[in-house]
């Protein structure tokens, strides 16, 4: 009896696997190694090179200020004993203020470059996603998957998109929660 149940279980599993195989043949799928795509796409390389040049250009004035500060700090160390403790204290405070100001300028430059880099990266990624979507439509793919650093679905036929249904449920749930909060607030006000 146990053998019969085991044989039926194996037979059903084989049939289920066969059904999965035939239904998966109905879909045309592919994948893209996104890490390789980014690494080898010429536009990414060119834009990265342009961004590096821009970063160096923006950083040059700050580098000159830092070199001047370092030279002045070196001079301060050499003259501190010769000119006395009062001079050293005053000059040391001035150097400390300049050092803080340079740090602020450096942080602002870093933040500016990070923001510009993020915008550039987002723009390029959007362009690539649009290209992949158009490519998928043109070639008749149902799904195009992404592998590499960010594994995601890069393209799917509109018929498989459940975004609207999920969004409707989320919005309905949110509206219901919002109404419940308003009712609770009104009841608390009455008390």
From TrEMBL:
Q: Which UniProt keywords apply?
A: Signal
Q: Does the keyword Protein biosynthesis apply?
A: no
Q: Gene3D superfamilies given for it?
A: Skp domain (3.30.910.20)
State the source organism's domain of life: Bacteria
Q: Which PROSITE patterns match?
A: PROKAR_LIPOPROTEIN
**Which first-to-last residue range defines the signal peptide?**
1-16
SUPFAM superfamilies in the record: OmpH-like
UniProt keyword Signal present: yes
The family classification in the record reads:
Belongs to the Skp family.
Full protein name: OmpH family outer membrane protein
